[in-house]
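Hey, can you fold this one?
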Amino acid sequence: MRYQLLDLPWEDVLVPHVLCFLPMHHLVILQRVSKQFQALIQVYLANCRSFDLSQVGPCIPKQAFCNMLRDNKVLQNLTLQNCSEWVTDKELLPVIGQNHHLHQIDMNGCDRLSRQSLVAVSLSCAHLKHLSLAHCEWVDSLSLRSLADHCVGLESINLTACRQLKDEAVCYLARKCLKLKSLSVAVNANISDVSVEEVAKNCPQMEHLDLTGCLRVRNESIRTVVEYCTKLQSLKVNHCHNITETTLGLLRKRGVEIDVEPPLQRALVLLQDVVGFAPFINLQI
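Sure. Predicted structure:
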């Protein structure tokens, strides 16, 4: 008697021991082979814990996205890369509404969504730990406050270029989400020392802080970071012209990785660019 692949038990063998090793774009191709394979892949997708659209290809059709996640209620990780140009609340809200165990969501660059999606995340995903909203300019104070109220276990959030946000919203987040370890408020001219000091005082577990391009942040708040954030591993302050080496040096001594070179090293790099070589300087003098 001859057996074929599809004769094996689907949920006990094929899904957990075969399909889980195939990349997503292979699964997409496989479901086109026959109706049986399409049904098998749908069973797999209904049980997968992680869904990363960056693995599918340069672009996934809207209807394919909806069909692939139609039956899934156990997602833990969701990455929306490769659909940021078209995904709207209409496509995302059903997925969020039926997946209450999401731990990580990446909405990076999804500029067609609205505050409604973030409010839905806050109401449905109480166990959320990691969230990326970089370049989502629709994020406002109201939706961020909702997130802070309901997702108090949040450990990392990327708010890069969320330019509607001001100090008040970031301070509220810091007071509610005390377990934050990674925060980016980069490329936002509204952020000042007020936000940085509140984050430092309320989030002692902070390990990675990105303040790139926050022009209003000064030495005073960085000194507060030095005092309270004893577990800090990296700090990004490029283009923060009001932060000087006097303060950054205190963090360098603790081994904190900083994206701005010390003044002497920057001077040597500039000199090398100008004259084509770096002269020998005895740094022990």
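The longest strand covers residues 50-52. Let me know if you want another pass with a different chain boundary.
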